[in-house]
């Protein structure tokens, strides 16, 4: 399971010009589920992300977590994070989990995260989405449960 995490001042996601999720200060998480991933991967990433100290304290040091600042999270499913671009010019997505497995683990990740974060907004699984965000920093990190 791969997550691209961006610290944001605000963010939103829309489908067919209708907002389906939006947050204020917090994190946007683009989440890709790989073939063979399980609940253990989702638990690891959820715990890691909500506790990741990437918000600045009063001294300007990245020393506070999403939980410390009572921030919000927007989670967007993104299978393209599993793209294999090593051969040819067209990405291969054979390493991505199938839709049923991916949706189940995406929902599980969201459910686990909601146990700790006051607001977790989501995109719409398998929809063409438009994501807008104001990256704060910018701060962007990539986490991979396989490399834990």
Structure report:
This protein has 148 residues and is an alpha/beta fold. It has a single domain (2-147), classed as 3-Layer(bba) Sandwich (D-tyrosyl-trna(Tyr) Deacylase, Chain: A), CATH 3.50.80. The chain has helices at 39-51, 99-114; strands at residues 2-15, 18-23, 26-32, 55-56, 62-64, 72-77, 120-122, 129-144. Strands 1, 2, 3, 6, 7 and 8 form a 6-stranded mixed beta sheet that branches. Helix 2 links the parallel strand 6 and strand 7. Helix 1 packs across helix 2 (99-114).
CATH fold name: D-tyrosyl-trna(Tyr) Deacylase, Chain: A
What is the end-to-end distance?
Answer: 10 Å
* CATH 4th-level superfamily: D-tyrosyl-tRNA(Tyr) deacylase
Q: What is the mean predicted local confidence, pLDDT? A: 96
Q: Helix coverage percent of residues?
A: 10-25%
Strand content: 35-45%
Structural class: alpha/beta
Question: How many individual domains?
Answer: 1
Low-confidence blocks of residues: none
Main sheet characteristics: 6 strands, mixed
Radius of gyration: 15 Å
Q: Give the CATH class.
A: Alpha Beta
From the 3D coordinates, which CATH architecture would you assign?
Answer: 3-Layer(bba) Sandwich
Order of helices and strands: EEEHEEEHEE
Count of helices? 2
Shape: globular
Q: What's the count of strands?
A: 8
């Amino acid at each position: 399971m791969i997550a691209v995490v961006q610290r944001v001042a605000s963010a939103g996601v829309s489908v067919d010009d209708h907002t389906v999720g939006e947050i204020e200060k917090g994190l946007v998480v683009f989440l890709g589920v790989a073939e063979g991933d399980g609940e253990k991967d989702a638990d690891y990433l959820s715990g890691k992300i909500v506790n990741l100290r990437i918000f600045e304290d009063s001294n300007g040091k990245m020393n506070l977590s999403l939980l410390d600042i009572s921030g919000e999270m927007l989670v967007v499913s993104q299978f393209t994070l599993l793209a294999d671009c090593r051969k040819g010019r067209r990405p291969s997505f054979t390493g991505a989990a199938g839709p049923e497995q991916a949706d189940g683990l995406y929902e599980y990740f969201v459910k686990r995260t909601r146990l700790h974060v006051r607001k977790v907004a989501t995109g719409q699984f398998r929809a063409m989405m438009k994501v807008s965000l104001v990256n704060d920093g910018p701060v962007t990190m990539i986490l991979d449960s396989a490399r834990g």
